[in-house]
Amino acid sequence: MEAAIRLAQALGLDERYSDWHNTSLYGTSASAVTSSLIMHEGAEKVSASMLEGLTVATGFLSNRGTTSKSFQVGRSAAEGIISAFAISNGITVSKNILNTFSASLSTNRDLSNLTKELGKKWVALDNFLKPYPCGVVLHPSIDAAIQLKERNVISDDIESIEVYVNPVVMVLTAILDPKSGLQSKFSITHAVAAAIVYGPLYPEHFSDEAVNDRKIAALRKKIKVHEKGEVNRGQTIIEVRLKGGRREASEINRGPEVPSRELNEADVKRKFHHLSDPVLGKEQSKIVWDYFDALENKTNLSEISELF
């Protein structure tokens, strides 16, 4: 993760306004570094593996809404492993690849970010858990819609919905009439409609069944999305007109940097059990949670294999 994030920072390529998918693009090098370390290689081969990973890096944002978006991430992981094995078996790579790679993609690069305070500051610690299984830019809209549900706004009473978002939301999640659960993860209209009906959203709310739910489908058609430059990336304003002329409004504004709300331990635990209880059962899920909750005090991590 550290390698991938630092590569992204070094290139300065803003995924929101480019055609490249960061996870796939930098995933090959991240996987190569990890694989080389697992193979107990020295610094020179770890470095060469990272560079070899860059030679096969790819992945495009236009694949969002298709299974290829996940496939290209998996391919990046696989290509990284192959790159590490290649270096281990004598394949050589130019040390100028990093300059070539960065110059071909970005005019805003600063390669010093790759090693700046490395070992002192871990940029991976700035990563966060997503509260909802969809595009991050949709999260303020979901939370604003949840506020409406909590104020007893009923979908059947809604005549129209106006949603005001930053233009980047429509760059990344502009599938207004999704045809599948996968497409709904990139749909601003589905996210708002589903949150008004269901409240907090989980994987089942981005399924084919949810997309075809008549109540959700009808509500999506009542939504009009407006792009506003003065609305920042972590902000959404929703205005609802109800039967009888009543109006309701809701706003979330987290600023331009991090659109998702930060989950506390109770939030993570709730999400964990929602996902794991149907698979493992409540009792086993509790055992797993309790084990990892005390992970820092464990001395024998091989016990993990006994949990599943």
The gross shape turns out to be globular
Q: Structural class of the helix and strand makeup?
A: alpha+beta
Give the H and E element order. Answer: HHHHHHEHHHHHEEEHH
Strand arrangement within the widest β-sheet reads: 2-1-3-4
Strand content: 5-15%
Fill in the keyword field for this structure:
308 residues; alpha+beta; 2-methylcitrate dehydratase PrpD; 60s Ribosomal Protein L30, Chain: A; 3 domains; 4-stranded mixed β-sheet; 13 helices; 9% strand
Care to describe what's here?
With 308 residues, the protein is an alpha+beta fold. The protein folds into three domains: 2-126, 2-methylcitrate dehydratase PrpD (Orthogonal Bundle); 136-253, 2-methylcitrate dehydratase PrpD (60s Ribosomal Protein L30, Chain: A); 265-306, no CATH class. It is 46% helix and 9% strand. The protein is built from 13 helices and four strands. Strands 2-1-3-4 form a four-stranded mixed β-sheet.
Blueprint (SSEs and pairs):
Layout: H1 2-11, H2 22-38, H3 43-54, H4 68-88, H5 97-105, H6 139-150, E1 158-165, H7 167-172, H8 181-184, H9 188-198, H10 208-212, H11 214-220, E2 223-227, E3 235-242, E4 247-253, H12 265-280, H13 282-293
Parallel strand pairs: 1-2
Antiparallel strand pairs: 1-3, 3-4
Helix pairs in contact: 1-2, 2-3, 2-4, 3-4, 6-9, 9-11, 12-13
What is the compact description of this entry?
This protein has 308 residues and is an alpha+beta fold.
